[in-house]
Every structure is written in structure tokens, then in C-alpha cells.
Amino acid sequence: MQVLTVEGPRTRAFDVLESRCCAPGGALPTFRMVHPCLSCGACCAYFRVAFHWSEADASLSGVVPPALTETLDPHRLVMRGTQASRPRCTALQGTVGDAAHCGIYERRPSVCREVEPSWEFGRPSAQCDKARLGHGLSLLTPDDWAVAATAA
Fold first, then answer.
1. Among 16, 60, 143, 149, which residue's Cβ finds the most Cβ atoms within 10 Å?
2. Which residues pair with 3 in a beta bridge?
3. Domain map of the chain by residue range?
């Protein structure tokens, strides 16, 4: 299976997975799957996103844009919007539960990189489940990770 990078406002490096295999007659069917996170965004609009300040300090190889953060305490920053009573990360683009993606995906904080969507790696994720339920979305299942066949 190969990971494709697809350009566009609603895609990221692992959005589309593509696999080709030989079929009778030499045809090469293509299998595609849109990553379930791209129709979700619940975690970005449910949790406070706190991380060490060095992740936004370019002199220490930090990549998180400082303008999108605010100070939580002397050691941690938070993504703007995530300390609100109804959190929503300022970097989240789109509509939760419909079409959503991170506007700074390649520069997101480590805590965002560590969130596992439920069943992506064969196990549930309490964080994913809690955020989805908090937005009235159904929980992900192993079936959400099944690769659907499409015409090449």
C-alpha cells in the first residue's frame, strides 16, 4: 500500500491511500479511501491543545506558528481557541462532522500528532471517541478503515 500526497485544501499526506494489484486480464484496479478525520475535526473542537513552549520557538526548531498560540503557564502554550468553554482550535478549517482539516497540519503540535483515530491501528481511541460523542457523531469502527474499490 502506498501513501499519496494530494494537493488541495481538504487533503493531507495520508488522506488518500492507494493500492494496486494485478487482476485477471492485466487490469490494475485502484482502491481509495478518504481518511475519516477529514469528515470529522471533533478532537480539534473538543480538547484544550496544550504543549511545551519550545514547540513554537523557531530558534529551538519549533514549528508551531507562535501567532496561533497563547500562554497557558510558564512552561506551556495552547492553541488559540482551545481554552474557550466551547473549544475550537484556530487552525481548524471547515465544519466539524462534515469536512474539516488542520490548516497547519505539517506544523501542528506534538499532542495533535499523538492523537490516534479509533481503529486506525486496530484499537479504539478514548480521545477520539470522547470528542466524536461530544459533537454528536457516531464512533468510528473498523469498517471505517475498509478500503473501497473505485474505478481507476
1. 16
2. 17
3. 2-150
pLDDT in tens, 3-17: 333 333 433 333 433
- The DSSP result for the chain, as a single string, is -EEEP--STT--TTSEEEEE---GGG---EEEEE-GGGG--TGGGTS--EEEGGGG-GGGT--S-GGGEEEEETTEEEETTTTSSS---TTEEEETTTEEEETTGGG--HHHHHPPPTTTTSS--HHHHHHHHHTTPPPP-GGGGPPEEE--
Per-residue pLDDT of 60-72, as tens digits, reads: 999 999 999 999 9
Question: Could you tell me whether strands 148-150 and 99-102 are parallel, antiparallel, or unpaired per DSSP bridges?
Answer: unpaired
C-alpha cell at 15: 488522506
Give CA–CA dist 17/140, Å, rounded: 18
pTM above 0.70, yes or no: yes
20-38, pLDDT tens digit by residue? 344 455 555 555 667 888 8
Pairing of strands 16-20, 148-150: unpaired
